[in-house]
Amino acid sequence: MEQTFIMIKPDGVQRGLVGEIIGRFEKKGFSLKGLKLITVDRAFAEKHYADLSAKPFFNGLVEYIVSGPVVAMVWEGKGVVTTGRKIIGATNPLESAPGTIRGDYAIDIGRNVIHGSDAVESARKEIALWFPEGVAEWQSSLH
Ligand code: CMP
């Protein structure tokens, strides 16, 4: 079954949006397979965003991600990578539709509340990086 990596960024945790965000994924019908509150260091954040290392905003992005605890999660379900990105909304919150997480809760591209893997292959890499211990194997009887 398809899995994706979702991270509630430090601003989302500090603003008390954790329950709201988890609720949106649960109510859609996806299954939570891994979850942890974790503060990462610079080297780890640089690894997660390695593809963006040449971007002018890279340093600021890394500083933002290490600025406080994040909620790292693995969600599973049919089409969860693409649909997860739809639930999250466009990267720039000013372009995210109302009803999406970023569309409802953010205005700044540098403080956009949440990250979601952009493809099945990047999800696989991100899950391996954030959950080297592995994730839940059990299957809920509701799904
Ligand atoms: P995310 O989905 O985590 O993927 C890459 C992140 O880089 C993105 O969300 C934003 O937080 C950040 N980002 C992308 N473009 C910009 C930008 N122009 N300025 C600042 N941050 C950006």
Automatic annotation (TrEMBL):
ATP binds at residues 9, 57, 85, 91, 102, 112. InterPro entries: NDK-like_dom (IPR034907), NDK-like_dom_sf (IPR036850), Nucleoside_diP_kinase (IPR001564), Nucleoside_diP_kinase_AS (IPR023005). The active site is at 115 (pros-phosphohistidine intermediate). One of its GO terms (biological process) is GTP biosynthetic process. Residues 1-137 form the Nucleoside diphosphate kinase-like domain. CDD domains: NDPk_I. The keyword Metal-binding does not apply. The keyword Methyltransferase does not apply. Its cofactor is Mg(2+). Pfam families: NDK. Keywords: ATP-binding, Kinase, Nucleotide-binding, Transferase. Transmembrane segments: none annotated. It comes from the Eukaryota. Its EC number is 2.7.4.6. Gene3D superfamilies: Nucleoside diphosphate kinase-like domain (3.30.70.141). One of its GO terms (molecular function) is nucleoside diphosphate kinase activity. PROSITE patterns: NDPK, NDPK_LIKE. It catalyses: a ribonucleoside 5'-diphosphate + ATP = a ribonucleoside 5'-triphosphate + ADP; a 2'-deoxyribonucleoside 5'-diphosphate + ATP = a 2'-deoxyribonucleoside 5'-triphosphate + ADP. HAMAP family: NDP_kinase (MF_00451). Major role in the synthesis of nucleoside triphosphates other than ATP. The ATP gamma phosphate is transferred to the NDP beta phosphate via a ping-pong mechanism, using a phosphorylated active-site intermediate. NCBIfam families: PRK00668.1 (NF001908). Belongs to the NDK family. This is Nucleoside diphosphate kinase. The lineage of its organism: Eukaryota, Viridiplantae, Streptophyta, Embryophyta, Tracheophyta.
